[in-house]
Amino acid sequence: MRELIEEWVHTDLSVVDKDAGFAPCPFAKKALHDGKLRVVECLDTEDLWATVASQCKNFDKRHSVIICTEEEAEQPYEQVEAACVAMNNWFAVNKIDLWLLAFQTNFTMVFIQRLSELDEASKKLEKMGYYENYTKEDFITLILARRRKRENGWS
After folding, report:
1. What pTM value is reported for the model?
2. Of 55, 118, 109, 57, nearest to 80 (Cα)?
3. ∠109-114-118 over CA atoms, to 5°?
4. What percentage of the chain has pLDDT greater than the value 90?
5. Inter-CA distances, 109 with 20, 42, 153, Å
6. Are 111 and 65 in contact (CB under 8 A)?
7. Residue 11 reports pLDDT greater than 50
8. How deeply is 138 buried, as exposed, middle or buried, from its count of CB atoms within 10 A (0-12, 13-18, 19+)?
């Protein structure tokens, strides 16, 4: 699974879109090459959410992002996303500097990051014009709502 994610970083996430002028995830390649990306695979006997909870509990500064993967998707994307939203709200209320993002292709990924690092990187991207192609609604929903949780919660 790690090899698949490394390939994804190199062939998709780090390739600059000619129209937008940016890669989909400008920080992914550096995190990978600096050893800041950790991939944790859920085994057939493990529950994705137990793995995510364990990784959140033990998250430390050695990594910028931990990706928990589940090869056989047990839940549809909407349920995974809803669980991430619920956990993000819980983190914010409890002043825990973590943020979860869901992604699903033919397998499920839950990204665990420090909210503070994610938000600071987002501010840099905003200054560079990264979000100019976002709709106003998407920018408010995806970027500003996350930022407000940090600013109003525990910054």
Report:
1. 0.86
2. 109
3. 85
4. 46
5. 25, 10, 26
6. yes
7. yes
8. exposed
Q: How far is C-alpha 94 from the geometric centre of its chain's CA atoms? A: 19
Torsion of CA 143, 149, 154, 155, to 10 degrees: 20
Q: Which are the contacts of 10, defined by CB distance < 8 A and separation ≥ 6? A: 29
Could you give the maximum distance between any two Cα atoms of the chain, in Å?
44
Instruction: Dump pLDDT digits (tens) for 44-98.
Output: 778 899 999 999 999 998 999 999 999 888 899 999 999 999 999 999 989 899 9
Give the Å distances, CA to CA, from 122 to 27, 44, 144, 153: 10, 35, 10, 18
What's the gap between Cα 28 and its chain centre?
A: 10
Give CA torsion, residues 22, 23, 24, 25, to 10 deg: -110
pLDDT at 155 > cutoff 70: no
